[in-house]
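thread: overnight batch results

M.L. [08:02]
morning all. the overnight job finished for the chain we discussed friday. pasting input first so we're all looking at the same thing
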Amino acid sequence: MATYAQRFVNEARDLMPYQSDLQTLALEIDNPTEISEVMVPKGEYVAGMTTVILALLAREDARVY
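M.L. [08:03]
and the structure it wrote out:
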């Protein structure tokens, strides 16, 4: 099973393939809070997009269970 970071990067590539800041993440991270902590310092735009991507992943998780 993919880590949260792997899923995040895949979603970021699909939604915004030109935004490398969203795709630069340690793939072993498996916690959305840690992803936010890494992304927020990269700027407001990246932080906002991180919030959206994490919400999409949470929505996807809700459908699975």
